[in-house]
Fold this sequence. Notes:
Rossmann fold, five-stranded parallel sheet, globular
Amino acid sequence: MGLWLSEAGLAALPESVIRPAYDRSALEPGIVHLGVGNFHRAHQAVYTDDVLAQDPRWGIAGVSLRHADMRDALAPQQGLYALLEQGAGRPERARIVGSLREVLVAPHEPKAVLQRLADPATRIVSLTITEKGYCRTPEGELDLDDAAIAADLDPGAQPTTALGFVLAACAHRQAAGLPGFTVLSCDNLAANGDMTRALLLRFADARGRGLGAQASRGSLTRWIEQELAFPNGMVDRIVPHTTDALRDRMQGLLGLRDRWPVSTESFSQWVLEDRFVAGRPPWQLTGVQFVADVAPYEDMKLRLLNAAHSAIAYLGVPARLDTVDAAVAQPAVRAFVERFWRTEAIEALPEDLHDRAYPYCQALMNRFENTALAHRTAQIAMDGSQKLPLRLLPTVRARLRSGGTIDACALVIAAWIRFLIGRTESGQAYEISDPLFAKLRAALSGSDGSAAGQAGAVLSVPGLFGADLADHAGLRGAVTRELTGLASLGTIGWLAQWPHSGRVS
């Protein structure tokens, strides 16, 4: 079976394996991170690991909001895990990350989570909870009808949502006369800090009204406004799911077994506004870019990388193209992605970003071709109802305003609709994970089954596309055309017909 990774085994690691350059026993948790998954462990935790020798007060206390799997895997390893960087054309690099000091499981130990959040040593609360973890309506507002949110609004209830835990921590700190902290969203959402602030304030306001006492109403809201900071940020790194093949690979590299290693690409980027109320780690020493305005970086990443990822996923899953590299190895898929960038996505960006966008897309394709990552299209395809409005629809709206073509965008929407049917082109069923799947499936089931019926049904799902796009005849017609082509010729066959001509207004 072999020995397991642990602090006692660090000295026996091969010299090629990078290990923590600091005394882990001196670490103090200054960051509480909600949503401990592979992305956090390959991104924020690594940036923090790189600076702990300079300041050990920024150790990370992780919180799993749902399952105990991560805690159970890492606790016997004292929070240590292995990270394998695999760059296209570059030697692979293994390291041990030590910044994660503990993992708490919110459903099992909510009081311990609240205690850590309310601890004066906690100065940053960061989040990777995915788009659906923010419990928003399709219009982007706090969904007060969400069952978990409604339960968390009960003053006597133990919180279950990320927003619920943050709000409860704020209430504890306010009552104890403690200062606030910085809330740092690390999810792929435009203006993620501003959005998180608006949601939390709306939550606090709703909670205040529920308390009933006039003296209490609004006090927590004002405290949050005065004591907390919500910097916007952009994160970028491709991080696949962990596989047994990776576990075996890491055992060969380490001479030790790791219950939950992480693989990732060599590329990594983190762009942040420097707005922190209680200090921050010296992340600038390890490559974090601190800028006045994150928006240009967000726009490029969401509309070029993330939108292209979604396109590849929804074209790829029904065609049994199981990984991103396998998909872009198909000349027709690669040509479509490049055309989507060149003719629609880049053209919809502000003109002053164009010079940066073209080389950025060239670098993206190199990253997509990385065979070592085996980034699964099914992973990317999850939660499309939450992702497409952020990744694709701003491009659609910009192109319609300018009178430009939207053929490529329409194909991505059509591919998503085709994906929602849940069967590959050869008839094999696959699972779909999406918080709106029941509504989407009901809409498709209620249509007449034609391409036009399916397009109209999905575009009309309340709040998803907005009134401006749901009723747009040109968009509906373009999506219908693309859906018809996919149904009749399949993914590769239809892409071979590209490009189409014509303009939509």
